[in-house]
Structure formats: C-alpha cells, structure tokens
Amino acid sequence: MKRMPFEPPTEHYDEKIETIDEQICYLIEQRKELSNNNPGFPTKELINKWSMKYNFYEDFLNSVFSHFLNEEIYKPAVEPKGFLQNIPMLKSFEKDGVFYTVTFVRQFKNASVVHFTIDKEDSDKDQLRFEEHSFFDLFIEGEGVDYDCRNNFGGGSGTHHSFTFTVSPALPNDLSNIKLTFKECKMPFQKPTGFEFVIHTDK
Length: 203
Prior knowledge:
By secondary structure, the chain is an alpha+beta fold. It has 2 domains: about 15-70, no CATH class; about 85-200, Conserved domain protein (Immunoglobulin-like, Sandwich). The protein is built from 4 helices and 8 strands, in the order αααβββαβββββ. The chain has helices at about 20-35, 45-55, 60-70, 125-130; strands spanning about 85-95, 100-110, 110-120, 135-140, 150-155, 160-170, 180-185, 190-200. The strands form 2 sheets. It has a 5-stranded antiparallel β-sheet, with no helix packed on it. Strands 4-7-8 form a 3-stranded antiparallel β-sheet, with no helix packed on it. The chain starts with 17 loop residues before the first helix and ends with a strand.
C-alpha cells in the first residue's frame, strides 16, 4: 500500500519551542530504550491522572500513546520493481473449517510479494456479515536473512479474503528453506489475538 507524501498542516513554526521539541524526541527515544521498545499502554487511571494534572483531554493522550505503538507502519515502504517471475506455492493450513493458503509468490528484483487467501464456509450468512474482521502479520525465517514483511491489506467477501505482503529483500527462488509464520491481529493497533500458524515451504 503506497503511502501519500506527508504535507505539514501549517507553514508556521515557533522557533522558541525548538529545544522543547527536541527534548520530546529525546524522551521518546529514552522511552523506547528503557522499555526495550515494548512499553505497552498506560492504564486508564494514569491517563485520567495525567489529563487532569497537565490539562489535556483524555482522548488526546490516548491518541498520543497509541502512536507510539505504531512506529513501524511509518517505515519507508519498498515498492517492488523489475518483475522476474511467479513462483506457485499452494501451501495451506486449516483450523475450524477456515482454510488459509499461500497461493504464490511474485518475484521482483528488489522484493517479493506473497499472496495469501482465507476461505471459510458460508454456513451462517448473518454471522459472517457482522463478523469482526482480523488481519495477519507475516514473519519469515530462512537462511539467516532478516526479512521485512509489509501487509498491503486486501479485501474480499464474507467467505473469501485475499491479502498481499511485500517482503524485502527478495526471497530466494528456491523457497525450500523458508518458513512463513502468520500471526492474527485485530484492528485498530494490530493487537495480537494469540492465534498463529506456520507454513513450511518444503512440505
């Protein structure tokens, strides 16, 4: 999913607060280091306490701390360039009547695009219509390479959904030693549900 270029909401900037803004950046960095980049989220009691003490709206503070959890989504996205080939996979995992499939991998010079589908029975149309949608994060292990996996999201009907993941650097053409782990999460904030599964490409 290509992100639109950011445009500052105003051209005005009061240079008297530059030092304070830099201190804010420093404190955010310190927060990441002290928490090992896993800070969680302040309790409702703390949000309420700070909103009264520093004269902020609670929802404003909720929004501020929510952004700290989503830094990775602002990482510059790799745009696949230089199409090479499609590699068929058709590797699946099934649970509770839901069929999860990696159908194929589209290879580019600088990245790979993993195509992923979810299919389920149309046994209860009313339930499917109002079902809370979930998404998946992809993690790839193989050959000592640190892969960055970006969910491009997708769409579908109540019984069929398809997603793509941009992976960089590009996966090897021989996928026999690659392990794909899909971890379910709920939106917003990509909160993990605890459900995950692994697809081994060598089976």
